[in-house]
Structure formats: structure tokens, C-alpha cells
Amino acid sequence: MHNREFVRKLQNAHADHIENQYGQLATLPGNPFEIEILRVGSARVFLCNEDRLENRGILTGNETVEELVAISDVFRKKGVEGYFELNPANYYRTEPFSWKSETIQSMLRLGYHPGMFRCVWFLDNSQGVQMLDCDSPRVDRFSSSQRTEFADLKQIVQPGPPDSVEKERELTEHGFTEHWHNYIGFDGNRPVSTSSMFVHKEIGYLSWAFTQPSFRRKGHHKQHVTRRVFDAFELGCSEVFSVTDFNIPSSLSLQELGFRLAYNYLLMEFPTVSS
Questions:
Q1: Which residue of 94, 190, 210, 236 is surrounded by the most CB atoms within 10 Å?
Q2: Residues with Cβ < 8 Å from 245, sequence gap 6 or more?
Q3: Which regions of the chain carry the CATH code 3.40.630.30?
Q4: What pLDDT was estimated at residue 172?
């Protein structure tokens, strides 16, 4: 387990990725997702009008009861569930320090409940990364100037309902900023896997990866991780991190590639009245 400042650094890097993603969605004509990016005391709060794990309150652990009530009211008014990461850096109050774990007690009294238990993995630049295996699946990186080509290929890898194809393509292209690096993996010439990475403040976040079910266990996930880490370090990142559920193939794959556990966290959930 790492010190409080390192944990906060990764937590805020994850928050930066949400802020960038939601900030881009907010620029769509008419703000159809009703994006809100707020500050309540020292907490960063992100909301849209759909139920998504990115609808988060990023806590410091020093929130007052009144601030937690205000944050709860924001999610209640929006009508979406809120998600809150409790980790070693925000579990106890630090200003002033207290062993009473006041935040979780206040959250439970306000109707929050424990949800997922998650793991944050990291690799720093001093560890390096093994070279790409030429015999493994080919994984190509797409720049922001190739957003249309990437969006088309992603639709092949992850086809949605016919009536949502244009919407999904628009969202993929619109969210492709200079901070995002997107990838497609191939079986021969057939696109069958995809992933993305967010790079900001010399930190790379491996945010997403998907492989078509019939092509899993053929090295795609490992190759996507390796390619993104290699690119992150080439871009000058000091650390790369990713988040997984506990004891799943993705977490085991990360460990095989040298990732170490940065910290675990409990995802507290605030259910709205409508849920």
C-alpha cells in the first residue's frame, strides 16, 4: 500500500479523466446529457442524466455532514445514482486528523450503501515494459486525426442496436481529444478488440478494453495493455494505472505484466428515490 499523497494522485487522475470526458459531452449542441461539473467544498462532483459509474463525487475525507448532504441533494435532484470511492487517503479525516472514520458513518446515516470492492493497479516508468510480441495480435493506435476511421472500426468490434449506430459514432468522434489514445486489435485483418488510454499530467490511465467473446483468451487484452503502457512511457508518463474488480482475468493479466497494487477501495453508492 502506498502513502496518502500517491493514492490521492491516482484518485485525482481518475477524476481528471471523468472531467475531460464529461466536459466534451457538455459541448454537444443543447447539452443533451445535461452534464454538470461542480465543486462542493473540496469535493469534485460529476453528473449526467444517465446512470453511469462516472457519476461521481470525488471526496477528500474532510467533507462536513452539510457538504455530504448538499452532494446527496445534487444526485437526488438529477435522479441518478452517485458513486463515491472510499480509499486509504480519504477514509479518515486529515484536517484535523481523526481515527473515527467519520465520512463513512455520515454516509451510512444519509442512506448510502457499500457497493463494489475495486483494485487500482500501477506500473511506473522505472519498471519499463516488455517489448510487444510479434506473434501476438496486432494492435494499432489511432490519433485524433483518425477519429472517423477509429469510430468506424469500433462499431465493427462493438456493434450496437441499428438505431444507435450514428449516435455512438458521433459520441466516439466527439470525445476523441488530444488526451485520448484509442486502439483496435485485429485477428488477421478483422477488427475484434478495442481499448483506450487517457494521458494527462504525466499519468496514463488504461480506461477501457473490450474483446469480442469468440476472440478472448487469445492474447488481445495482454497486447492492448502492453501497447498502451509502451506508448504512455514514450509520451513521457511517469506512471500508468488501471482499475479492475477483484480477482478477475483482467487483474491477473495486469499482474503478469508487472503491475502492482496501489490500493483497494470501496465504492459507496447513493441510490436516488426513483431507484
A1: 210
A2: 116, 117, 118, 119, 251
A3: 130-256
A4: 83
